[in-house]
């Protein structure tokens, strides 16, 4: 054996062009997937932060009202407004809330008012209207008298 054979055994084997291409493609794929994942995390819409529930404040008791229903019937309605804590403790004029309640129930057939589902639905609608009228300082409505004649 000559020197050429020994030198050939000691020399590192040459890498083929295919293995170099495979490594470059694998690195490109890793970088592409990493970039796409990072872009998704940065650009995805952020979840809206839920508003904390308002803290209850004072309860304002309103005067009873008699409302004309359909077919000569009447509804005697007395309600209270649960205010939020940021509404303050000053006296509240409940005339807007009473006016909205009169509009909500005037002319309603008596049979509908006997339905619990209808009563709850109209109460939710009334709460939305009253809340808007009082700049979201009313968090709930309580019916303390609901008498149908």
Write the layout of secondary structure elements.
Blueprint: H1 3-10, H2 17-43, E1 56-61, E2 65-68, E3 74-84, H3 95-105, H4 110-113, H5 116-133, E4 138-148
Antiparallel strand pairs: 1-3, 2-3, 3-4
Helix pairs in contact: 3-5
Q: What can you tell me about this protein's structure?
A:
- The protein is α+β, with helices and mostly antiparallel strands and 149 residues long.
- 46% of the residues lie in helices and 21% in strands.
- The protein has 5 helices and 4 strands.
- It has helices spanning 3-10, 17-43, 95-105, 110-113, 116-133; strands spanning 56-61, 65-68, 74-84, 138-148.
- Strands 1, 2, 3 and 4 form a 4-stranded antiparallel β-sheet that branches.
- Strand 2 (65-68) and strand 3 (74-84) form a beta hairpin.
List key phrases describing it:
single chain, alpha+beta, four-stranded antiparallel β-sheet, 4 strands, 21% strand
């Amino acid at each position: 054996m000559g020197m050429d054979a020994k030198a050939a055994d000691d020399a590192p084997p040459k890498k083929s062009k295919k293995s170099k291409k495979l490594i470059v493609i694998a690195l490109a794929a890793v970088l592409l997937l990493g970039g796409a994942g990072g872009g998704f995390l940065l650009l995805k819409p952020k979840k809206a932060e839920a508003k904390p529930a308002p803290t209850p404040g004072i309860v304002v008791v309103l005067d009873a009202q008699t409302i004309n229903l359909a077919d000569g019937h009447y509804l005697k309605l007395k309600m209270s407004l649960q205010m939020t804590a940021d509404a303050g403790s000053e006296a509240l004029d409940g005339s807007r809330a009473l006016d909205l309640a009169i509009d909500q129930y005037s002319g309603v057939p008596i049979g509908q008012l006997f339905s619990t589902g209808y009563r709850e639905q109209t109460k939710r609608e009334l709460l939305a209207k009253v809340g808007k009228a009082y700049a979201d300082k009313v968090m709930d409505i309580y019916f303390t008298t609901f008498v149908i004649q």
